[in-house]
Amino acid sequence: MRQVLWFRRDLRVEDSALLANASKNVLPIFIFDKNILKKLDKNDKRVTFIYKSVLELKKKLQGLNLDLAIFFDEPKNVFTNLKKDGFDEVLCSVDFDSYAKNRDEEIESILPIKRFIDSFILNPNSHLKKDNTPYKVFTPFYKSLNIITQSYNIEEYSFNKNLEKIEFDYSFIPTLEQMGFESQELPEFLSKDAIELLEEFRAKVNKYQEERDFFYIDASSKISVHLRFGLISPKQVFNYFKSFGSADCEFFIREIFWREFYNYILFHFPHSEFDNLNKLEIKWNENEEDFIKWCEGKTGVPIIDAAMIHLNNTGLMHNRLRMVVASFLTKNLFVDWKKGEEYFAKKLLDYEASSNVGSWQWSSSTGADAAPYFRVFNPYTQSQKFDKDGIFIKSVFKEFENIEPKLFHIENALQSNLFVEYPKAIVDIKLSRQRAIDKFKEAKNEQF
Q1: Other CB atoms within 10 Å distance of the CB of residue 218
Q2: What is the model's pTM?
Q3: Are 366 and 338 in contact (CB under 8 A)?
Q4: What are the structural domains of the chain?
Q5: What is the Cα–Cα distance from 304 to 323, expressed in whole angstroms?
Q6: pLDDT tens, residue by residue, 325-348
């Protein structure tokens, strides 16, 4: 049996389903997928991060007397050639977004595939309600997992020490430039491995629940990018914090299962990747200028603009800010959530289809366990509550250094300052909130 171990978003050797379930003669591979890469900007920071991570995976596999064959091609071409080379089957971690499913079906027509749940803890098909239908609300979903969430350890995969490297040309390593990308400077935290980040976070996890909503406080674990690309598994993260037996860790562990929940929703409701999960027919605002101003951080609302400019510059956005800017786009500007989701997909370093789609549908009141349609974040109230002194806003707008912070939290107050040029808000918060509520009422009435 000659097996291909297809690493994708599981770039690690610890707790690896592939290295645990492979038989003997193996060819570990990674494909820089042209179908994906051609849609990305040449300065996409994620490609630099993945590139470095793939090279690190190659070193770790070599330390296990294996290696990693690297390709820059479309997957179907790679596997057509591997079939000619006499390979029998492919082992891979499963993904549930539309591109991944279509890609794997295409490869399965070339070589048999064995799929494993490796990027998440749960098998979405194994946790249903008593009537065998999927949960749509997080709290009962989470409570149903007590046997898992209350355990102190989830068994991790063990490396099969009997694996042998198949003779192959492992020498090819394309450069970023050859693939059409430019090497990017990454945020400092991405130079650290996942365990280092967890150890740093452990020192502040007791304040996580209290401080996580404040835009200017460094309260997060910074682990989302590593989780997204599988440099650490969610089981490893779970076991790390459970090992301390601390109640302070429980709130953070619960957050891990929001990620599981959104993956679960995408699995059971695949149409939600592209359409309203609740199937509401909504007549969205199609004014492209409004959307572009949101993207560029030119809305005239300080916290919205600061968040979007920071995202565009760094690929990062605080979790509560994601909710605030999403609410502003979908409720105040009444722009289709799919446009915001697509923009985040292009910009976020930790972009993950299931979580991003789920979060956007939550904000727009169209998805699972969604915010009620009449819940509309007031961006001025949010900045007053979570950035009272304008620390985050001023970190983005250096020219606002001497501005009285209270002006950030009052609609159009910056226009009264003679020393700054800042546009008037493109929408009235109160009027636009009422418009959104009226339009949702109209859509719901038409549905029934």
Answers
A1: 11
A2: 0.95
A3: no
A4: 2-118 (3.40.50.620), 120-155+194-268 (1.25.40.80), 288-447 (1.10.579.10)
A5: 11
A6: 999 999 999 999 999 999 999 999
